[in-house]
Amino acid sequence: MTLQQEQIPAQQDKHAAWRGRSEQADAERTSAELDDAEAIKRLRERSRRLLGSMIRPHKQSIAALVAILVGQNVATMATPILVMYGIDHGIPAVTDHGDYTIMVVIAVAFALCASLEYVCVRLYTVQSARVGNTMLYALRKRVFWKFQRLSVSFHERFTSGRVTARQSSDMESIREMTENGVDDLVLAAMNVVTITVVMLVIEPVLAAVSLLTFPLMLLLAKWFSRVSAIAYRKARETVAVLIVYFVESMGGIRAVQAYRREERDRDIFGRLNADNRFAQAKGHQQNAIMAGGMRGIGHLATVVVLSFGGWQVMQGNTEVGVLAAFLLYMKRFFDPLNELVQFYNVLQSATAALEKLSGVLDEEIEVAEPERPRTIEHPRGELRFDDVTFYYRDDKVVLPNLDLHLPGGQTVALVGATGAGKTTIAKLVSRFYDPKGGAVTLDGVDLRELSEADLRGEVVMITQENFLFNGTIAENIELGKPGAPRSEIVEAAKVVGAHEFIDALPDGYDTHVRKKGGRLSAGQRQLVVFARAFLADPRVLILDEATSSLDIPSERLVQRALRTILADRTAIIIAHRLSTVEIADRVLVLEAGRIIEDGPPEALIDSGGNYAELHRQWEASLV
Amino acid sequence: MRQYLHSYRFRLGALWTMVLLNIGAGLSVPPLVGAAIDGPITDGDLGALWGFIAAIAAVGTLDALLNLTRRYFQTATAMAIEADIRDDIYEHLQRLHTGFHDRWQTGQLLARVTVDLGMVRRFFAGGLVFAITSTGMITIIMVQLFWIEWRLALIVAVAAVPLFLIGRDFFKRFLPAARAEQDQSGEVSSAAEESANGIRAIKALGRGPLMAARFDKEADRLRVLGIRKSVIAARSWSAFGAIASAMLGATLVTGAIMVANGQLTVGQLTAFIMLQLNLLWPIEAAGWVMAHGNEAMTAADRIYEVLDTEPDIRDRPGARAVDRSTVRGRLAFEDVRFAYDEGGEVLRGVDLDVRPGETLAIAGKTGSGKTTLVSLPSRLNDPTGGRITLDGTDIRDLQLGSLRQVVTTAFEEATLFSMSVRENLALGRPDASEEDLTEAVRVAQAEFVYDLPYGLDTRIGEQGLSLSGGQRQRLALARAVVVRPAVLVLDDPLSALDVHTEELVERALEQVLKDTTALVVVHRPSTVALADRVALLHEGRIAAVGRHSELMETSPAYVDVLSAESEEVAA
To answer: How much is the average pLDDT of A157-186?
Structure first.
């Protein structure tokens, strides 16, 4: 780690001390987001490409939308012309000759224009919403699927709050762009081009003089583009941090209330809120400067044209009428520029969001699915670790050159102190991580060569996490086997001994578990998760401290069930309760990533080693 | 909303003054230009022209500066108000009872403090200003129109009738459509949040594609609702534009006839129509402003839905503060009942007396109500019947903040936050000294924290996921110990520890518990060793109370719950 990285301001700031120091300096960024100029340029490039890929499928619709806008523009532009024509020609015809033909023609033309405008506005509004919403929908889907495929290690540093920020606040910023102002942009751009041409035609010299202000406008726009990119990029970050904090402190509200952390939380949230407020305001304020500047340049152009034109008129080079018309057109040139400035603002904000999203979409998937997956012909559930090395951080090897063979159908218990590598073995078998060296194979096939669907069909892990999704108990169990009929769900619950408590709930299997299963106790959640895994019916089952929250009667039921369920399956059990270990065919005692004892539990107890000691302590605790 | 505007009234007043000055400055440039053309340029008076040019330059600069300053501070003010409201929503959410939070998905709450609030802010900073200025402009123009020719002006005024009718219809249809879209947007956030939170569970089962399909459904619904909303908007927006054009056509034709009949001069008609042209844009934009206004209204409704929810658990009138130093710690449950909203009592009359300094264990089968019971003493839930007293006072008559200072609860599931270890440990006592932390770490056998890369300053991941279950649980226990409460409530605090560590923790805890009243949910005989007495909770009632050895002899139900004996037989 370089000196520069260590002095991250956020970590030096005493107000940010609560965050603590993370192992990686920029843990929550995607690898695309670095701070150097080169990376930022690439990021911009990437966000443009992303925008391009979003637009591409809708090229035809967008062309149609532009055509509709041209139609609308023609209709609105025609109105004043018709009015003028009516006054100049229609009225004299009526007063002088009593001839209503021109007026009738104008009235008809008016009706046509109004109808055209009506149709165009209606069509445009619906069609543009259709394109915009479909584009956002596609982007949301892409981002979601990408997050689903990114590895567990990515998620552990990125945090769920940040995922939520990408899917809510960043998407909202893009939605703002699609919903507001694209039509203003096109209309204003058309207007600017038309008026420029008209000005050049009616008075080239004056037009050239007024165009002198162009470089000024470009400079201003360039300045805004540069500074607002930085400002909005920062704003995306501050809002993400705010969201992460919000999501976490609301998710853990029980702990917040039980420990009276409200005030401290409010302090921190208030500070993050203020940070975000100033970051958000900055871009908008830069936009205010640009808008004001544009207005000033408009007035400057008027002054220049008026002085030069006035002098020309006095010299007899130009007519007063031409100058007057020219000045009117100039006003119509500068007025819509305001719309362009507004749109530019929304665009810059959306671009910053696109940068963040493109960072996610381009993030390399550490645990990737194989391009040409192999299939297992006859699954037996045989697992093999071939010279497997693994570490989370380079300087701390968790598993050094592990060789291990688990024949199909064997139930193996892993025993050892915290940090011995038990959970790491479980995570490697369920491919949450890939080994840094060597290979883990299932029935002779490297896990890296199996398709996600095949692997997950064969290997299922139950962890101590007991995560329940928002929904009913039945829905949560059904996740093990989507589409399973109620009878199978109830059967699975009965097998693990969850049926009794579920049945006793007022709504039974249709009881809503509420957020993160808050309606149930930890033990009840564990039973539901068990039922879910049993319903999945995998060949290899991994239980990582999956029984720790169960009370003794429940554990007894689960164990009885395990004996039948695991009879023809490979199982890896990690448990500090040796009652769960006792059902194993084989026990492995781990120490610092190495196997120091290996054998059937009875044999190990008799041999008088580490396991025997553990077992003795366990027996003693059972009084 | 008014209270927020009120606290910024001077700033808002200054802003409106600037708006008016800005309009004045902007409007005075064209007449000056006109006067310059009609005067010096036509007359060929170069000197006078310079005077006009200087005046235009000065007014133009003023206009640009006013515009810039106004927008600059308008943004600052709008953002400040938004941040204030966000802080207040956050504070209110913190006060809401856990029952509320169990029911509301985090994504929905998040949408309210971000997207919805943003909509309200944008309307106040953009749409509302526009609406007010254009209303003013329309009024001025209408007065001028009536001044020129009241009969023609009536035609213009009549157009207000269909505009009003369409507007009313728009309100009726657009409001629910905007609301539906916002609700769905919250659902999409929730789906994203939940799938990130449960990523390990999803991956372990390989349910990524299933989750993607579900998310897809939510996102698609959002798409459909977004389109539906704009179909409604399109109907009125297009009608607005058409009515404005039709109105113009009608005045032109009528005006022409009036001119032909000598009731009006061509000049008057021209002036009339020139003015009327200025009406087109505000009328067309009215649809857009109304849509934004509607969205801001429904967004504000969504925000107030949360702000108007009263916390179920709050101080009773006349509640008094409880002083830690005078608390003896006698905790009594008197006929305590509890039922979740679905009905069906979980606790059916619990009577229990925990003596000061005593450690009482609660045992019971899954579903017997243990976890519910331990959520009551610190008032995370309130009983639906009966009462709980601390030293003889109903805990609902004690101030909530001070009660929770005296009664601390540690849950089985250790909720750790993405913060430093230190911050996590000092959660319940921000002013804890280094010695307090060290002592708590020792008691909980959590010395592993010193081996983390930056010791106590290491950020532990979301929910402390890079730590093992046992490590997390030890941190959660240390956190409870740091508080040094008079009453400590622990929900199976040692379940994820191995036997050896558990023994060490228990030995260290004994010192802490010596003068602390403790209520401990236990699942294992080894944890019971902590307790002076054990209470057996059975079907929502206390079935037996006594010492472990007594109960083992007298209560078969207790033996069934807590003894490994029968299991040994099965093995």
So the answer is: 88
- Give me the interface pTM, i.e. the ipTM: 0.91
> Chain B closest CA to A479's CA: distance in Å?
8
Q: Is the pLDDT of residue B308 over 90?
A: yes
Picking from B65, B95, B125, the residue at the C-terminal end of a domain is B95
Q: Looking at residue B470, which CATH number applies to its domain?
A: 3.40.50.300
Q: Which residues of B touch A447 (CB under 8 A)?
A: none
Beta-bridge mates of residue A414: A574, A588
Q: Is residue B561 part of a domain?
A: yes
| Cα B537 off chain centre by | 38
B451 at A interface, C-beta within 8 A: no
B556-565 LR contacts (CB < 8 Å, sep 24+): B558/B363, B558/B534, B560/A553, B561/A551, B561/A552, B561/A553, B561/B363, B561/B364, B561/B365, B561/B536, B562/A552, B562/B363, B562/B522, B562/B524, B562/B525, B562/B528, B563/A552, B563/B525, B564/A552, B564/A579, B564/A622, B564/B525
Taking the Cβ of residue B275 and every Cβ of chain A, the question of whether any pair is shorter than 8 Å is answered with no
CA distance B306 to chain A (A): 14
Task: Inspect the interface and report whether the beta carbons of A479 and B210 lie closer than 8 Å.
Answer: yes
- Same domain? For B205 and B268 the reply is yes
**Interchain proximity A549–B471, CB inside 8 Å:** no
Do residue B396 and residue B504 come from a single domain?
A: yes
Would you say B117 and B301 are in contact if contact means Cβ atoms under 8 Å apart?
no
Contact list in B for residue A582 (CB cut-off 8 A) is 571
Classified as helix, coil or strand, B301 is helix
Domains in chain B: how many in total?
3
Nearest CA-CA distance, residue A228 and chain B, Å: 14
Best of A123, A130, A275, A277 to substitute, by most chain B Cβ atoms within 10 angstroms, is A277
Q: Give the chain A residue nearest B500 (alpha carbons).
A: A617
Nearest to A94 among B109, B260, B273 (CB): B260
Contact between B110 and A246 using a beta-carbon 8 Å cutoff: yes
Distance CA A284, CA A342 (A): 10
Question: What confidence tens digit (pLDDT) does each residue in B62-92 have?
Answer: 999 999 999 999 899 999 999 999 999 999 9
pLDDT band at A10 (very low <50, low <70, confident <90, very high): very low
**Is B317 contained in some domain?**
no
